[in-house]
Design goal:
single chain; alpha/beta; Purple Acid Phosphatase, chain A, domain 2; 5'-nucleotidase,  domain 2; 6-stranded mixed beta sheet; disordered N terminus
Amino acid sequence: MQNDKDPNNNLKVRRFLKLALIALSLLVIAHVSAVTSVTRAADEQLHFTILHTNDLHSHAEPFLERGRMVGGMARLGHLIHSIKANTPNTVVIDAGDMFQGTPLFTHYHGDVEVSLLNHIGYDIYTIGNHEFDDGAENLGKQLKKAKFDVICSNLDTEAQPELNSVIKPYVIRQINGNRVGFVGIMTPELERLSLSLGGVRVKNLKDDWLIPVRQAVKEIQDKGVNHIVAVTHCGADLDQQISQAIPQIDVIIGGHSHTRLDKALFVEHDDSSKTIIVQTGSYGRTLGRLDVAFNKDGSLDAADTKYRLINITDKIQEHPEMKAYIDKKVEPLLPLRRTIVSQAEDAFDNRWTAYPWDSALGDLITDALCEAGKSYGTTISVHNRGGMRGRIEKGAITLEKVQEILPFDNRLTFATITGKALLSALEHSVSGPAGGRFLDVHGLKLAYDPTKKRGERLVFALAENKDGSYSPVDESKEYKVAINNYTFQSGEGYDFKDAKNIVNTPERVGIPFRQYLEAHPSVKPQAPSRIVPVTENILSSFRKDKVVARVKGLAPYSKITLYQGTGRGATPIDNKFPVPLEKPLQLTDDLTADQNGQCTWRGNVAGSWICAVARPPKGSALRRLIISYPIEITAPKPGEDSKN
């Protein structure tokens, strides 16, 4: 029998108790550590990364732009895969208009675009207006193949069952132990922009179009989710309105306006919370990376949120499988690339918002359309900027480029319209920014004031006569015009319902454009000479011994140039910008506004027209060129001394 008083036995007991105490201490430490970890996870900020694109427009291949190869889905895919492999909690998003823009879409109807987004591993996507270009039924067919979530909260798609089956108003994703809601939003202008919706419509359009968006946001919040990302195809301006109207939205991943936001926009709300708005531009030139942070209370932490655009250049490796896939799909289209129809003496750019006057590409296209209508007797042609894509680089113009410039299934229409209808169309053209609805023109010269309210912006419109001179458009006179059938049939909100002698040609608009290029072995960009933006109340004049011109309302120390002409018109200055004069001559080159933004000039210009051009100084808040209304200086009668 063991002796309880054995010293060895007592030592064993003490050792056991010591070990037990150590074990118990370790258990307590482990428990406390676990509790602390849970508490810390609850207290820490939510961080995750959004990689995003928008308005890819079927640009699967890299393309030449200003002497550099940019874009390309194989490069974009390689970059996204690389970032995801090294960045936990990453979500990949596209904000719509992946369809339309190159022959790849015309040939494959969207199959290539959906396949590439699948291969890259996109997570979330919202629909763009150009996804309907081949019809709503085709869109439903293509999106059935999507491995990513398709979200849009304000579209009624019940008329298209296949499309309806793939669209969700929102999705909620688990990210790093937190739930984040993603809601999709389509532009309320969809029904004005697309004529092939097949019964699809924007919800609550005649009431408050944001009602279904608010409902989706409320549903997300009711599920206990307070981090909300909107994926929108509305444009940068509407995105700011959405952020103000629904401040519960923390992040807006935008598209539609092709706005390149090198710096994110922050919209601050009354409670000091913020919404961040980002957009990448278009055509896959850049990938947006948003490293977003939220505070403990669920609000956006603007200070800790980082954003940048990554340029997609030839320095980025191409994903081999994606490149092989794209190359295979391009093979049937190579004859278009090898067929040269003309030569460009210089580049024809197409930066919509950069041209408040006529664009060289628009001038070229409208020249071609008017030429095609000669047998009909057309003297005027117009083409909406949203209907022409891409850019012509200096050098060979291929048949592939022709199809890229005019990719839509629009046909050429000839019609006879009244001057009243023509003036109404021109007023509608300038009723917004120089975006998709803006018309480039042939056979017209016009001036408009973008500072006026809508419906009152057209200052004058002149139509070309048979002898090459120009006269004011007469409301009661009839004019023969060439126009694409999209615009003619109310696309972008135009109204030509009273037109007569209508001829709808069977040819896509690209056919007469190609024929025009083939008839002109080389083409050169024209300086802007058809459309002039002007500003009222900048220039005034009166006569004493000489004509006195006064300029006011400018930024302090603006540089001012006065021009004298024979009448109203539109004429380029230095091949850079137009003035609203016919045959302008420079009167001055050394005028400077004073600290109040004013200056006075005196000279002999009676019997002519004058206008002023002002360039704000560097660092001025107002950076744009200011062009005044043209002012007629009547010749004085003998002994007369009166105001103009």
